[in-house]
Amino acid sequence: MSGILKRKFEEVEGASPCSSLRESEEEEISSSESGDSSDSVNPSASHFTPSSILKREKRMRTQRVHFEKVTVYYFSRRQGFTSVPSQGGSTLGMSSRHSSVRQYTLGEFANEQERIHRDMLRDHLKEEKLNSIKLRLTKNGSVESEEANALTVDDISEDDLDLDNTEVDEYFFLQPLTTKKRRALLRSSGVKKIDVEEKHELRAIRVSREDCGCDCRLFCDPETCTCSLAGIKCQ
Fold this sequence. Notes:
- The chain is mainly α.
- The chain has helices at 2-13, 17-41, 53-61, 106-137, 146-150, 179-188, 197-210, 226-229; strands spanning 69-74, 77-79, 92-94, 100-105.
- A two-stranded antiparallel sheet has the order 1-4.
- The relative contact order is 0.09.
- GO terms for molecular function: DNA-binding transcription factor activity, RNA polymerase II-specific; sequence-specific DNA binding.
- Residues 1-60 are annotated as: Disordered.
């Protein structure tokens, strides 16, 4: 009896563990494949999430703004009466109605702006070159020079300017203009008569800005306080 049990134990012990392990792995793979195939035929609810109708409708309503063209209105120049320059009069303004209209594509408008800015930059560099030449001829203004007085912007050659190494986008184009230049711009725009009264009004405004407040001391007397008499409340 003991011999039979020993023989059966040896047969079981002698079985290859690799083969039994391989058989168990094949069973697991086959079961997983059968599970995957069943899922592909009948997908479970956990793997399928329907898209929301509300979100889809919201995405369809989303719109973007697209610019196709630029409309530019041109106004003729007139004497302003609307600004206070640091000196002089002859302020610059524009007429109440535009004189012409032009439409550009976005690319054309960008090229036009670059051309205008480059022309303004060229004129500004010419002015700087002219002033430097005049200072050199007059020894920083200490002596008179007929040659310096005869020089104009037209005498400055573009070959003497360094336009290629100057960034147009970094240039500040709103440059202040002197009274002489403002008067020249008005005349070139067809303004035949410049109102000289504006110059006196602007001078009075600049003086009034230098002296602010009343002259009262300790307390304000409404009967003598300049602010009170002018209808200005105490600060």
